[in-house]
Amino acid sequence: MQNFELWNRFEHWLNHYNWIEMLLGLGILIVVAWLANWLAKHVLVRGFRRFSQLLPLNRDGALSRYKVIDRFAKILPALIIKVGIAQVPHLPAGLVRIIEMLAQAWVFIIIVMTISAMLNVGNSLYQRRPDARNKPIKGYLQLVKIILFIVCALMIIGTFLQKDVFTLLAGFGAMAAVLMLVFQNTILSLVASVQISSYDMVRLGDWITMPGLNADGDVIDMSLNTIKVQNFDKTITTIPTNRLVTDTFMNWRGMSESGGRRIKRAILLDQTSVHFLDDDEYQHLKSSFLLDKYLNQKNQEIVAWNEKLGKQASSKLNQRALTNLGTFRAYIQNYLQHHPGIHQEMTLLVRQLDPTAHGLPLEIYCFTNNTDWTFYENVQSDIFDHLLAILPEFGLRVFQQPSGADLANMGFTMPPAQPEHTAVQHQE
Predict the structure, then answer these.
(1) Cα–Cα distance between 40 and 47 in angstroms, integer?
(2) In sequence order, what are the residues at sequence separation of 6 or more whose Cβ sits closer than 8 angstroms to the Cβ of residue 214?
(3) Are residues 219 and 158 part of one domain?
(4) Which of 130, 274, 293, 386 has its Cβ near the most Cβ atoms within 10 Å?
(5) Maximum distance among all alpha carbons in the chain?
């Protein structure tokens, strides 16, 4: 009874000091909100983290990494302040309304941030799928986030203006032209993302080449507005998404998936070194197992041809004969067919191109059986090292422009340089 009387006296005393009663109410509200925030962080969030570790969808810690529950837990103190601020005595009605609107705006922001984090989790889960590399959804999720933030902004504006969201949307149509101008890159990128995904133009991990933008490397990220390419020198090139639709680029995915990488290179031969094989050269080249079968077959064809001509074959103009160039071409063909680094199920040929002033091009067209860059370069270099070194065995020479050493060997000497003062006197 005595305690009850003391409380009545204290309450009566407070009635004479409204500002003290108001401060006490605010203090109690702040303490309750702080306790709710502490419980949410240290009890609810920690408990959910332990529980989420048992869920299969959180195998890589996506829920914890994107802090879905951490963000959602921040809504609790905002709700307490929104509900409790009206219970604080002697607080001006205008201030109460402002605090309620701020708390409401904070609730909207927390909800949108939580949904955004959940979309990130969804993208992380989607990337576990085996076909996720072919059709990434990151760009579409970013578009959803943009729409969510726009709706959130409209709801906050509607809260402060005390108007319905649909009323704001009705007036929003008048700003469509301005918004299309502001978000034109986003709209173009969205359309480009749909086209890229529909036509399967680019995937994560593809090697693309875009010389106009100095891009030559692997695609490491695809978003709504940009695509990142890691070049082979480890630099990063950022390409606007719509440029992949409007500009020309090369995608090397077909080469990677085929299992072979093309070698297309020619050796320029001196045309004056091409001649018919004599008996000594024939016997020398026949000792190669790569040419034995070819030479026997060609020799039989030549004998049959000459027998068919009869007396006319007595003239060398009517006879068929082996050439060192044709034999060398057959040697390259057999050499490539026995090479362990060449793909035997793809196109393999050795052909002559049109003669030029720089020699006779003998082109090698084949594919390696591995698309690795280092392996490809090593195989290609080994092949041409061997062919250049073995050319003299066929009596052939490589064509190249004469150098100073070549001219000196031919007896040409350069006149000595005249002193500068002599040249000036001569001009005078």
Answers:
(1) 10
(2) 231, 237
(3) no
(4) 274
(5) 148
| pLDDT confidence tier of residue 423, bands split at 50, 70 and 90 | very low
CATH of the domain at 398: 3.30.70.100
Q: What are phi and psi of 207, to 5 degrees?
A: -95, 115
User: Residue 237: which of 207, 223, 217, 253 has the closest Cα?
Assistant: 217
DSSP helix/strand/coil, 139: helix
Per-residue pLDDT tens digits for 287-338: 888 888 888 888 888 778 767 766 555 555 556 788 999 999 999 999 999 9
Q: Does 66 map to a domain?
A: yes
Task: Determine the Cα–Cα distance for residues 31 and 28; give it in Å rounded to an integer.
Answer: 5
- Residue showing tokens 């480890």: 234
CA dihedral 336, 337, 343, 347 (to 10 degrees): 90
The answer to whether the CB of 195 falls within 8 A of the CB of 187 is: no
Specify whether 165 is located in the same domain as 282: no
Spell out the alpha helix ranges (H) of 127-248. 138-161, 165-172, 176-182, 184-198, 243-246
Question: Residues 212, 157: one domain?
Answer: no
CB atoms near residue 234 (< 10 Å): 7
Please tell me whether residues 277 and 218 are part of one structural domain: no
Phi, then psi, of 370 in degrees rounded to 5: -145, 135
* pLDDT reported for residue 396: 93
Report helix, strand and coil shares of the chain as percent, to nearest 5: 60, 10, 25
Tokens of 377: 């370069």
Query: Would you state the structure tokens that stand for residue 4, as one six-digit string?
Result: 């009850």
| Long-range contact pairs involving 149-158 (C-beta distance under 8 Å, separation at least 24) | 149/112, 151/112, 152/108, 152/109, 152/111, 152/112, 155/108, 156/105, 156/108, 156/109
Query: Which structural domain, as residue segments, surrounds residue 247?
Result: 207-252
Predicted TM-score of the model (pTM): 0.55
Q: Is 254 exposed, middle or buried (0-12, 13-18, 19+ CB in 10 A)?
A: exposed
Are 226 and 143 members of one domain?
A: no
Class of residue 239 by CB neighbours under 10 A (exposed 0-12, middle 13-18, buried 19+): buried
